[in-house]
Amino acid sequence: MDAKRLEGKNILITGAGRGMGAENAASFAAQGANVCLADIDRDTAQGVADTINGQNGGRAIAVKCDVTTRDDNAAAVKAVVEEWGMINVAVFNAGLNKPRFFMDIDEDNWDLIMNVNTRAMWLGMQETARQMIAQGKQDYPYKIITVGSIASRKPLVDVTVYCTSKYGVLALTHCGAIGLAEHGITVNGYAPGVVVTPLWEQLDKDLVDIGFKQKEGQAYEDIVRDALQIKRVSYPEDVSGTAAFLASPDSDYMTGQMIHIDGGWCIQ
Q1: 142 among known catalytic residues
Q2: Enclosing domain of residue 146
Q3: Domain count along the chain
Q4: Residue 57: exposed, middle, or buried by beta-carbon count in 10 A (0-12, 13-18, 19+)?
Q5: Is residue 1 part of a domain?
């Protein structure tokens, strides 16, 4: 692998203050990219950016971004352009989950998850594509990268709305690839399984609270035992290599694809 295969790429990452987003930002910067960390918690994102800027000539900025608003998505794209002249890649990583059994889902639960996981991705994709189209076609494709989930392949009764939202992400990936191809933009995504991040740690607690699991950590144990071919949970660094591949020239001839990084869960 070329250690600088992302040299000169200006990359926006949403939800980049922690978890997979933060790991992707650090990985991309180490491979030569300029990275903009967009997060609703700007202070946390700035801390990650400061660490990147202090290591081996990394280049990172942080912006506050509520991904559920069009204006904030547009402002995040604008920040990349103002800092580095153009945007080459956008990774839509922001997401959340709040488990409910099917008959316990209410409007607030539905709207919260669908707004952050699906509606926000649509807004971000549109605003990013708008800027990419304005920049004009290049000799290489612009890249939009979505973050899906095993939940679009494995319906789970305790996270019905999350599954629905990630089916939507899969549809946006496919439809975006078709709708943006004429503008020289590819759309691909990756779908993790169980990744030890703040999102999964909170989900683990929530599953105990609703009575689906008896103790914290049981969700991890049950999935590793019963569903995964690779008998361990994953960590953000297990995912960042695939994200970098999708951001790099190595994936220039791909579009409309969702790569599963799930330890073999989806083949069960």
Answers
A1: no
A2: 10-193+235-260
A3: 1
A4: exposed
A5: no
